[in-house]
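To: structure subgroup
Subject: Chain for Friday's discussion

All,

I'm putting the inputs and outputs inline so they're searchable in the archive.
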Amino acid sequence: MNKSLFTLSALACAITPGLAYAQSGSDPAMQPLEEVVVTGYSTTEEKKLLGAVNAVNLDDVQDLPSGNIMQNLQGRLPGVQISSNGNPNPSSRVRIRGQGIGGLGFNDPLYVIDGVPTTKGMHELNPNDIASIQVLRDAATGSVYGARAANGVIVITTKKGSDAEGVQVKLNQSFQEYSYDLNPLNTQQRARAVFQAAVNDGSDPNNASPLYNYDWNGDFNNPQLNEIRLPEYLDSAQTMRPADTNWFDAVTRTAKVSDLHISMGNSTDRSNVYASFGYYNAQGVVDESEFERLAFRVNSSLDFLDGDVTIGENFTFTNQVSNKVNDLAEGALNLSIEQQSIVPIRTEDGLGWGGPAAGITDRDNPVRLIEMNKDNENTYNRVVGNAYVEYRPLDDLILRSNVGVDYGQFYYRDYTRAFQAGNLNFEDQLITNHNWNKTLVWTNTAEQSWSFDGGHFLKVLVGAETVDFETEGFSGSNQGYASDSRDFAFLSQGTSGTEVGGSGDAWNMQSYFTQIDYDFEGRYLASVTVRRDGSSRFGENNRYGTFPAVSAGWFISDEAFFDVDFIDELKLRASWGENGNQEIDTRATSTIYESRYATTSLFTTQQDEGTAYDLNGADTGNLPSGFARVQIGNPDLKWETSVQTNVGIDFEMFGGSFWGSLDWFDKTTEDILTRTQPLATQGEGASQIVNGGTIENSGFELVLNYANDFEIDGVGVFNYEISGNVSSAENEVISLPADVVNSFPGDGRDKTILGQSINAVYGYVADGLFQSQDEVDAHATQGGAAPGRIRYSDLNGDGEITEADQTFFTTSDPDLIYGVNFKLGYENWDFNMFWQGVHGGQIRNHWRFFTDFTSLNAGSNYGDRVLGAWSPENTGSNVPALTLVDNNNEARSSTFFWEDASYLKLRDLSVGYTPSDSFWGAIGASTGRFYIQGQNLLTITPDGTLAQDPETPGATFPIPRSINVGMNVTF
């Protein structure tokens, strides 16, 4: 592609000012339609927006810890679903307008930071440096980003000197804690549960487990347990005595999060300078888990030639360190629940680790897992920024050239000492990884505007952009170290098990775009955008894709016939556009063969599936290697395309105190880029990336705001604001390739995911528990049926429970997602309360495998719900009767494990106080504020919900409750 192309340039988002409210003598919150927002390579008054765009009110999240700005916005943006967990490494998943294409392909939005596009995580950016965030939800507003905008665009601009004058200091200290209500059994309780399960099965309890010896009356009809005897030692080596370990307490703690931000800003008529330093350190509720980030930023600009020329830059550098415990924390918490309490943390001599033995599933020791990995750290450095020059030869012409860079470097060193924990035995190993990636973006644009007689206004933006990406990495591992000192463990010192690997990748894009905006008297608005993208990831036949968009708006309230006193502004808008996606392997168009020197089969240790072969039969020396096909190339691949229609209405009423917007959208994604999963009969390496499948997302988004004040005699004036949003999105799979459809739920024949949501769930319908033998006899034939066992519905009415009785019974898609924020201000005090919730959809409560059964994981611990399991004397229980044998196949996919996903959370609650200027003047400051804030303080769920937190039903790293105290001071 032509890298020498240079065209004229327009005002891009890199230097766009933050949200600027028009001042009319009232509270800024009362002027929602006067903001200036960034929608692409230019700026627009919010009142003239023609698509679905939301500007984030950063004041609402100013008290929250700054791990990841996206986590702080959960529930605050219509049509934006954000999910995360309690890991101190604060990553998050963002979905705009529904579930996208699910497991078929790429679903993440495009982030644009000061004009630099990226899909990397926002936890690498210091949120305190952000001046504004705009979320472009529809195709028309995102179309100027063309091929990378299919999943929405989030535009971020960082602060200038004028946004943060003086020296500002922000300090926040948080404390986090969490406790499960899963309640693993202690040693005596588990022994009793095993006893009852064996008695229910009609088998001798003393044959159930080598861990317990029962003194009982031997009467299965009226069992009486006199005493539980534990062995003196759990293992034959006599290193572990029976214990009563509370594993959850052993691996969790009250965590601390420290957040320090210092910035300096200054602006004059000719210059703007902003510099900042941020330190963020987050512990996790899992012991030793930790994430640390250092962030430095410098933004500056300078005007020349009476302001006709501006040069500037915006750069940030981050250094973040995360230990391996963050990656293992979820597993450690899972082990703390499943590992039996009879296992001790340490061996009798205090030097070794407790671990599994006979009668205990080979689960690792979670304390060992943490202690032996807390020093294994990865370091990630990232540089993101841009440098630009802007020239205004005429009053209405802006030329701009912008160069952006996004560079990341990752280093990881993982040394594990040799250890034995019970019957688990591992050799020492050192693993080292190092990789880097680099994105260079060169954007050149020109923007010309004209005002004509009669109220006509025209603005034309043209531009070209080149994106070059490159990455390379290597890894190495070794075993057999003479010393277990980490200071000695380097790859050159290992004596066995040497492995090395390396990889690299590169791709580039060339884009051309134009946008034409028309305005007649501020009453009729129209816009046309066309972007043409070329990507090296596609073959020559389909390398380029064209993505058009059109939009229009009408201020009905400006018409002479409109005469509604309480409506100040009413705007109708509509848009249609196409966006693309190119997120596939750069080798997708090529058939790939790889040498595999030695590969052990998954099914037998006697078979080598590598490509090396001993042609001479000597069984020694270096073996020559052949090649194996791993992928079939597809030279006809073309762009994945999303076609979206949006209709919206914006309104402002009652003198500006009440305003909002309503949007309806329909988004169809076609030619989805996905990988097939062919049958083995097609031969090795038959998989390929194809254009296949169509998925439709449609729904609505509503935003409402009301702000006013009231006075209490003798007390004073209170000002308040209530804001909320609610959105809904439906997902439907329209078509899929034959090689893909069988990878999703269904029987692959007459019941497939076609016509269902991409998140549809397929399985059996559980119809309660059998209460008596008469119910078993009257029911369809069901293998393993018995009183107290799960009863499954005979959906096809053939009198037998078979695979044909499965159906699509639910989806994890919520019906509604919503958030409500309350603000109250009185003199120097401010109060904020934010509720966030989900209504509808279902979640899979996989913890019922643990809390409700003694048969599905016989060697693990159980939850205390098994103590209230069904019995002839306890028929009201929804926990199946205890058994040690799963004759009824109760682990099958069924409605038994699914429950309502609805919840309402008190996400944030804060109180702040701003002392008088005289108070701050006494210490040399100009202003400041103190606050205390709580997060995730309360969760309300429907009756019958068993999951403790429906937001993260499958996560063993929970979202903790936290209390934050902090202050912001400006000098």
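Points worth raising on Friday:
The CA atoms of residues 16 and 593 lie 48 Å apart.
Confidence is low (pLDDT under 50) at residues 1-34.

D.
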